[in-house]
Design goal:
2 copies of one chain form a homodimer. Chain A is mostly helical and 138 residues long. In chain A, 60% of the residues lie in helices and 3% in strands. The longest helix of chain A is centred in the C-terminal third of the chain and has 33 residues. Bound molecules: zinc ion (4 copies). The site of one zinc ion (ZN) has 4 residues of chain A, from loops. One zinc ion sits at the interface of chains A and B. The first copy, chain A, binds a DNA duplex (30 and 30 nucleotides) through helix 2.
Chain lengths: 138, 138
DNA sequence: TCTTGAACCTCTAGTCACTAGAGATTGTAG
DNA sequence: CTACAATCTCTAGTGACTAGAGGTTCAAGA
């Protein structure tokens, strides 16, 4: 049994974040000492590691809630898990696509001005003022 | 002179968002009718288009505030504008880098399970439980 | 056993860029 | 003149935390 601080150190999840996850129902309510402090065991550590890893991969709290629900029922079909992973993947791909378009425009915009001129003639400002300068929709 | 609804239609920025931008100081306080409704002119339209375009490119409100400040002083050096654009570009590149790592892992994870099995044996859940399955840091 | 101070507790509020809704007032077409 | 869509202000909610106030508990050293 160890404290919330120790759990934090082991998982690299900040203490207030751990309490937040408990509030959100991601972590079961921890056992408490007689003085009302949280105590965790190996199961708590593993669950939080799972959450941490899923968050690092960009899954939402809501998605993680479903995944944990599933994890707690080993006999259920894992279809939902795959669905969630696939949908997360397509979200990520969408974001990459969008960011690549932005990268293109921002590269052009940045290159267009050396920062030595005056606001009035600035290519950055002109480009922002008029989307016609852009090569793509974004 | 046109109403906030008309401005909204022309810029594709929602009415409450326009009011929000005014509140944040991005838009000058609009003129008002005797009945207190906002009225805009060409200048207002252009400014909002600028804001919209910058937001589409991912600039923060704070960054846009600096850019607008600069735009209002045509004689100033445009160094800040380039700095902001360059920093935005590097933000975008960072994000792309990170998302590509996620894409890799998520592809592997998604492929590892067809959703036909049972939670206990699910590769998706196992991968989330243990970062050791991963090929990269993320 | 006592003391000190780091770690813990709860609660509220702030972040960013909006979005939603309530309840009241205004503008405008028929 | 009447309807009613559009506008107004104000408050609160979103997601995933983060910060801070003010109070309590734990554990190590004297
Ligand atoms: Zn410039
Ligand atoms: Zn553009
Ligand atoms: Zn599976
Ligand atoms: Zn991993």
């Amino acid at each position: 049994m160890f404290s919330i601080g120790e759990l934090s150190r082991r998982t690299k999840v900040k203490v207030p974040t751990i309490r937040y996850y408990e509030e959100m129902g991601l972590l079961a309510e921890a056992e408490r000492t007689s003085g009302n402090q949280r105590r965790y065991d190996k199961a708590g550590l593993e669950r939080l590691s799972f959450i941490r890893h899923a968050r690092d991969l960009g899954f939402s709290i809501e998605a993680i809630l479903s995944l944990i629900e599933l994890q707690d029922h080993p006999d259920r079909s894992c279809e939902t898990a795959t669905d969630i992973a696939v949908s997360q993947l397509s979200d990520v791909r969408e974001k990459i696509k969008r960011l690549k378009l932005l990268e293109k425009e921002l590269t052009r915009i940045s290159k267009g001005c050396d920062g030595l001129g005056v606001s009035e003639d600035c290519y950055v400002l002109a480009s922002l003022a008029d989307h016609e300068h852009c090569e793509n929709e974004h």
